[in-house]
Write a sequence for this structure.
């Protein structure tokens, strides 16, 4: 009998630690979990010139093809595997990743806007918002984007003040009203172990009650 998964959504501002915590959950349940990153679903901009693509506001929900993300999440919810895309921040193109996402008892979706879209929220069984101050988040983004995305520190700071913070205030922060739980990871260091223990109980219960 088919067992519907538990689907967790993790949101929060840029640099709040969404990806890190999603991978932490996955490492705790390596045989039972699948992670989906919202950032894989940024729109392909290969049809416009590079200079125009560079001006795209990637901190706005419209930069993400959330209909495809919703479709993939819904497929996994129904027990159907999907091939997730990948994204190049060098030339702003979507890549064929060969990343096959397999239906699992636990699906973990993380990204800036996962609590913004009603159709995606409706698929989530638990919604977590990670709340971290902007100074800490900027430091983390500087470290990540210079290393992983090829941006300079000046580019990151300019983008932060002109796009990231305004979009955070307009779109990301208001979405915390939809969260089941708001976690300040800098203050509550005991949360992870408590959360993982509770999740283990939920998975065990779900395994006994397939749908």
């Amino acid at each position: 009998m088919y067992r519907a998964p538990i689907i967790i959504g993790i949101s929060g501002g840029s640099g709040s630690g969404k990806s890190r915590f999603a991978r932490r959950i996955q490492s705790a349940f390596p045989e039972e979990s699948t992670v989906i990153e919202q950032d894989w679903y940024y729109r392909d901009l290969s049809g416009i010139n590079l200079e125009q693509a560079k001006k795209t506001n990637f901190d706005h929900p419209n930069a993400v093809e959330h209909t495809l993300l919703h479709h993939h999440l819904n497929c996994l919810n129904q027990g159907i595997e999907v091939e997730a895309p990948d994204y190049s921040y060098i030339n702003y193109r979507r890549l064929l990743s060969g990343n096959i996402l397999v239906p699992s008892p636990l699906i973990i979706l993380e990204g800036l806007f996962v609590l913004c879209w009603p159709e995606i929220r409706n698929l989530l069984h638990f919604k977590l918002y990670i709340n971290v101050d902007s100074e800490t988040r900027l430091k983390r983004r500087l470290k990540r984007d210079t290393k992983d995305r090829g941006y300079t520190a000046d580019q990151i700071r300019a983008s932060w003040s002109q796009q990231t913070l305004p979009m955070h205030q307009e779109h990301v922060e208001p979405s915390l009203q939809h969260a089941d739980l708001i976690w300040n990871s800098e203050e509550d260091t005991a949360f992870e172990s408590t959360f993982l223990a509770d999740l283990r109980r939920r998975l065990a219960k779900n395994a006994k009650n397939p749908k």
Summary: DSSP finds seven helices and seven strands in the chain. The chain has one domain: 6-204.
